[in-house]
User: What shape does this take?
Amino acid sequence: MENGLPSGVGRRDPSLDIETRSLCYQRQRDNVLPPVGEKVSAFSLLWLRKFHPLRRWFPWLIPTFVVVNVALFVITMYLNNCPKNSDSCLAPFLGRLSFQPFKYNPLLGPSSYTLKKMGAQKLGAQEMVHGHQAWHLITCIWLHAGVFHVLANMSGLLFIGIPLEQGFGFGLLYVLSGFGGSLLSALFTQSRGISLGASGAIFGLVGGMLSELITNWTLYENKFAALFYLLFVIVVNLAVGLLPQVDNFGHLGGLSSGFLLGFVFLIRPQFAWVSHRRTAPKHLMYQYILWILALILLILGFTIGLVMFFRGVDGNDLCSWCHYLSCVPISRWSCKTEALYCWYSQNGNQLILTCQGNRTNSYPLANASESQIRSLCYQLCS
Assistant: This one.
């Protein structure tokens, strides 16, 4: 007997109290999906998720994409071998990883020739089709032109991609958006230069977030604030794409592909925001309609785009004003591009190159190889 009660009656093991409190706390954390009739903050679902990275779904896919992009950039720099193929390099203490001169590549990276050889997209569909190099449409989204380029894209990928992966466990959205951007770029850009980078795929993630907000509209409280923020980000970045040397068609293709893919893949959160104890709300009729329409438009868009690509169709022939979507000419700059061709001659130990635009430069190279001449020509004419 203790306190007038039989032994073992009315007593609680202190360790059991701790375990019970811990269990209750865990259940409170797990009940993330709001009860029926309650709404949650749109910003909390779109952005606040990244502050709880280990709650339910450990983000591994996006970090893997980042590692692959950075590793391919390092490999590209190694193969570029600036000390061997150029007359001068930046950061020569890096050896084979040193950068091309700043005047040739202000992004601190390899030469255009090396990027093209690694799989950067050759703008102009006919060149890729006739050269049996359509695979460049995929490889170009994993390559970057320089340190600044890869840092900017990878930071955007981490900031946008990790919250999406935690909430939805997506994978194809990134790759298919990048492919859509590459395809539209190949159809409408007539420059003989190159296009590369993860920008189109990242724009696809933003487009996916926008369609996810629309398809899950009933879950959100401050939906208009979130919608305004996403539209503001899209408009600002597309406006930057109107500058010369920026491939806005890649951005537009990635954005539109990601927007449609979002209706297909992001119809309901799958991981971090679904409770163990509560089931997600049933899909509504308008969500099914958006899912079907988006899937049909995606299939039609990719099919028509690929047919035009392999037939060598120039998208500008079908849309005479579409080139203004990528560059708007004003008095301060021109949107015209030139083909990269050079004439060269050897004068003793001096290699003399002349670009088709009458730009000439000499290099202290004797018996220059064909790859060296091509690399220097790209640098001179770009």
Notes: Residues 1-38, 40-45, 47-55, 270-278 have pLDDT under 50 and may be disordered.
